[in-house]
């Protein structure tokens, strides 16, 4: 067997045995969640009242983040990072879609969601639904959230991870809250190529 034929056989075995996910091309902070059976889709409303689903964004790398507009730190940090990633991607930025799903539909009106997400980037999409479907959607995505009283008002505790979907609509990477702009840019580029 020639050297090149042996190499081809070994490469084929690699593909069959590992799914050929080149982990070393993901950032060091990426959580590889390829193949998980949750977060498949949703039916939520955009600020204009149009029903949106994940399926309509096929062909793009999609970041999904659950939060609320009055969040003091985690949510604006995640959206700021996503806006900076889009800028770093240059022309490829048009193939990166950020979706912000509110866990506080009682206060996050459609107008407020639009203003909030567009403050980071005009292409960012804020989505909402009623209380019951918010809970169902969050559960489908394994997102924890809870209303926490703060005297005369309340805040929301919630999961701070973001999800990245590949261009075929498959959940692939969990983004930690402390991931850098460069790390997330690397992960988006990885998914645009794989």
From TrEMBL:
Signal peptide: none annotated. Pfam families: SCO1-SenC. It comes from the Bacteria. Residues 33-193 form the Thioredoxin domain. Gene3D superfamilies: Glutaredoxin. PROSITE patterns: PROKAR_LIPOPROTEIN, THIOREDOXIN_2. The keyword DNA-binding does not apply. Transmembrane segments: none annotated. SUPFAM superfamilies: Thioredoxin-like. This is SCO family protein. Belongs to the SCO1/2 family.
